């Protein structure tokens, strides 16, 4: 039986696999837990993520991708191998695989992704630029002679791009996204409440109450969080107002807005006009941050929408582009 071709969104936070003819078959955190002594893989995905901050000395939970590129090659290969096998259910021959890479990566980084995918079990691997994939997944008319703007807010990076006639016209990538929001929350709680909280607690707090607008955050309920008191060293529970969380992440939101404005300023008047007509589309997990469309729209005077299923856009677009693998193979 011929293996299904697959598309992989190899993200800093999540890896999502799309199988030809089936759609999304797997979506798991990009985390691998390893035994530090033997190097053996203990678990991959959500099980490994639940171990972050809770591992004994003999186990490490690794996030092998950093800012959209491979930071730990061997662990990335192990993770992809596991996900490719899981997605195919061990059936059929080796698949052709399309993997997304951030726009603006170097040739070396691109090579590393292709090599890793081959070593992980692909018959052959191809790459597609991430903003392009996310725009396809968001349903934007990427092939038409009209400009579209997509802003993908992931774990490691926020990627802003304008697209027209099947190509990226202008783009920008900044290391200000989901992880940075979590870091800012950890820092703020430490500075203002003398409380040390973990990555997972900060992320949950972000998902539960964070808002891109300090003004609109006033309407949200405060949240209870637990951590370690830096003075007594003991566990402690505090109540944090939603407004404080919004203040903690303000700087990151501002940087994202600046990147969008700069990209808009660089585009031709025609594309800028198209973007005003169609609006800016937000994708990626970070697109779900409360009040983000309002705040961006307010700053740019352009309508802003969140794509439906923002977390899946890149994988869907990567999967859609599998159709072009047949064309590429003939080259
Ligand atoms: P990547 O492509 O880098 O793997 P994703 O697009 O999967 O990233 O998005 C993951 C990021 O989205 C994480 O930082 C996660 O905390 C964040 N995220 C998920 N849900 C929400 C939410 N409701 N509000 C804000 N951020 C969220
Ligand atoms: Mg992504």
UniProtKB/TrEMBL annotation:
Top-level taxon in the UniProt lineage: Bacteria
Gene Ontology cellular component list:
cytoplasm
Instruction: Describe its partners and assembly state.
Output: Forms polymers.
Q: What is this protein called?
A: Cell shape-determining protein MreB
Gene giving rise to this polypeptide: mreB
Function text: Forms membrane-associated dynamic filaments that are essential for cell shape determination. Acts by regulating cell wall synthesis and cell elongation, and thus cell shape. A feedback loop between cell geometry and MreB localization may maintain elongated cell shape by targeting cell wall growth to regions of negative cell wall curvature.
What InterPro entries does the record tag this protein with?
A: ATPase_NBD, MreB, MreB_MamK-like
| Location in or out of the cell | Cytoplasm
Molecular function (GO) terms listed?
ATP binding
Q: Give the residues the record marks as binding ATP.
A: 12-14, 155-157, 203-206
Q: Name one GO biological process term.
A: regulation of cell shape
Similarity section: Belongs to the FtsA/MreB family.
What does the UniProt keyword field contain?
Answer: ATP-binding, Cell shape, Cytoplasm, Nucleotide-binding
What is the first-listed, main subcellular location in coarse terms?
cytoplasm
């Amino acid at each position: 039986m011929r293996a299904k071709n697959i598309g992989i969104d190899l993200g800093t936070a999540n890896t999502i696999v799309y199988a030809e003819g089936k759609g999304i078959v797997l979506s798991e955190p990009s985390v691998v837990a390893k035994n530090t002594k033997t190097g053996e893989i203990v678990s991959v995905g959500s099980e490994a993520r639940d171990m972050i901050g809770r591992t004994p000395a003999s186990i490490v939970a690794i996030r092998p991708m950093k800012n959209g590129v491979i930071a730990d090659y061997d662990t990335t290969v192990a993770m992809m191998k596991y996900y490719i096998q899981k997605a195919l259910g061990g059936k059929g021959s080796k698949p052709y695989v399309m993997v997304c890479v951030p726009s603006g990566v170097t040739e070396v980084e691109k090579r590393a992704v292709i090599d890793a995918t081959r070593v992980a079990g692909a018959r052959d691997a191809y790459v597609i630029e991430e903003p392009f994939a996310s725009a396809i997944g968001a349903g934007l008319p990427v092939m038409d002679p009209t400009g579209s703007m997509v802003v993908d807010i992931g774990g490691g990076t926020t990627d802003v791009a304008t697209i027209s006639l099947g190509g990226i016209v202008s783009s920008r990538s900044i290391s200000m996204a989901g992880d940075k929001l979590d870091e800012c929350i950890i820092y703020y709680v430490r500075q203002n409440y003398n409380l040390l909280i973990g990555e997972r607690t900060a992320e949950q707090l972000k998902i539960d109450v964070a808002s891109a607008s300090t003004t609109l955050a006033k309407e949200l309920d405060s949240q209870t969080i637990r951590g370690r008191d830096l003075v007594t060293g003991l566990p402690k529970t505090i109540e944090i107002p939603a407004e404080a969380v919004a203040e903690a992440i303000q700087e990151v939101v501002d940087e994202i807005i600046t990147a969008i404005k700069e990209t808009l300023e660089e585009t031709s008047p025609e594309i800028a006009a198209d973007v005003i007509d169609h609006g800016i589309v937000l994708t990626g997990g970070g697109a779900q941050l409360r009040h983000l469309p309002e705040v961006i729209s307010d700053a740019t005077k352009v309508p802003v929408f969140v794509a439906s299923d923002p977390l899946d856009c890149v994988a869907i677009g990567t999967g859609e582009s599998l159709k072009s693998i047949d064309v590429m193979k003939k080259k």
